[in-house]
Amino acid sequence: MKLLLINGPNLNLLGTREPEIYGGQTLAEVVHKLACAAAKRKIDLLHFQSNHEGELIDKIHQAKSDGVAGIIINPGGLTHSSVSLRDAISGVGLPTIEVHLSNIHARESFRQTSLIAGVALGQISGLGSKGYELALMALDSYLRPV
To answer: Does 22 qualify as catalytic in the annotation?
Structure first.
């Protein structure tokens, strides 16, 4: 099974950007740990990060033709503003789990609304990088029920 991990704008700065909010791990460390967890579950994890909305949308559009079964996405700040990203997720019809390192519901009011949540299978927020692992487990269970 193939899953796509997408990280949006500014997540390339993990480890240096506000570590008191987003943690001290770099994006490479987060992805490596998740790839190891995926391999144990016999999942091929593809990863894509971009600071550009259109590139994220193009990657989501391409996912189905690439044989991707589901998506884990941390849309970053686009969570709260991108109807186009929401439409891309909805349009491809792949089960998607939204992940946020910080608890967006406990932050500034403009961060408390997710345009993505309504088209996602679920949302994991506020558990740091562990949220990615939980999303992987949830998506695996959803796609391969016991």
So the answer is: yes
Confidence of residue 27 (pLDDT cuts 50, 70, 90): very high
Q: Which of 32, 47, 100, 105 is catalytic?
A: 100
Reading the block at residue 88, the tokens are: 């891309």
- Cα end-to-end distance, the chain, whole Å: 15
φ, ψ of residue 101 to 5 degrees: the values are -65, -45
Q: Rounded mean pLDDT of 132-143?
A: 98
Catalytic annotation, pick one of 22, 61, 132, 142: 22
Torsion of CA 123, 125, 127, 130, to 10 degrees: 40
Q: What is the DSSP string of 70-131?
A: EEEEE-GGGGGT-HHHHHHHHHHT--EEEEESS-GGGS-GGGS--SSGGGSSEEEESSTTHH
d(CA 119, CA 121): 7
Active-site annotation holds for 100: yes
Mean pLDDT of all residues in 85-108: 93
Averaged pLDDT score across all residues of the chain: 95
